[in-house]
Amino acid sequence: MLRVAITRAQPEADRTAERVRARGHEAIVAPLITIVPCGYDTNTEGAQAIIFTSSNGVRAFPDVRGARDRIVLTVGDITAAAAREAGFKDVRSANGDVRSLAALIKRDLHPTNGKLIHIAGDHVAGDLGGDLRAAGFSVERRLAYASVAAPALPEALNGPLDIVLFHSPRAAECFVALGAPNAANLAAGCMSTAIAAAAAKTSWKRIITAPRPREDDLLAATLGG
Q1: Three-class SS of residue 196?
Q2: pLDDT given for residue 225 in this prediction
Q3: Tens digit of pLDDT for each residue in 65-96?
Q4: CATH code, 36-147
């Protein structure tokens, strides 16, 4: 049985822990990021679609009643599920990363049909807006939440571990900045190459990168099965 630390923010950390335990391993929940909602303009009038690049954005969207009929595009299936649960009717998942999401948007939408509203946090991987603007789209990024790094390592990360899971570059950067205790004896499980690059700023026994930026692939790569 492996001892697996989960560094992502709540409530996703608990969901990941359940999946780790279901594979027969010990899950240690040790978030390095806290999600803090921000006040922002939630009016989507005139938009042809809303973009969510994380389920944190969905949770930060306070009321879907006036927007439930808008097309919603998400980076992955977990975010898509959160959007459907929130009440959005037309939800389309790229089931990948921001490049996959940009490709989906270019395929399904047209720049002349209205602006796109990206409900995002203060840290976004890639340059989704730049990619879409280069294709002729009008994109508004609205800051819905901030990802606040932990001021100190959770005590659980100083204990005996085998693997540390990272779902974002922000969490990996935080771990490194806070000293990366015992990293040379641990494996870093990273959901993308960008996350692996952030983790690689310290020395690990091994860095494992998921073949696709999906939690299923991350858990399969690090835990097997």
Answers
A1: helix
A2: 65
A3: 778 889 999 998 989 999 999 999 999 999 88
A4: 3.40.50.10090
Distance between alpha carbon 180 and the CA centroid of its chain, in Å?
A: 21
- How many angstroms separate the most distant Cα atoms in the chain? 55
Name the residue type at position 110.
Answer: H
Burial of 106 (0-12, 13-18, 19+ CB in 10 A): middle
Dihedral over Cα of 211, 214, 216, 218: its sign: positive
Tokens at residue 149, please?
A: 């790094």
Bridge partners (DSSP) of residue 206 are: 187
**CA–CA dist 163, 37 (Å, integer):** 30
In the numeric block, the tokens 């927007």 are attached to 67
Give the alpha-carbon dihedral of 82, 84, 85, 86, to 10 degrees.
90
CATH assignment of 3-32+150-223, among 3.40.30.10, 3.30.300.30, 3.20.20.60, 3.40.50.10090: 3.40.50.10090
Decide the pairing of beta strands 206-209 and 90-93. unpaired
CATH 3.40.50.10090 segments of the chain: 3-32+150-223, 36-147
Please, are residues 190 and 208 in contact by the beta-carbon 8 Å criterion? yes
**pLDDT band per the 50, 70, 90 thresholds, residue 124:** confident
C-beta of residue 32 within 8 angstroms of C-beta of residue 174: yes
Q: For 93-107, what is each residue's pLDDT tens digit?
A: 998 889 999 999 999
pTM for this prediction: 0.87
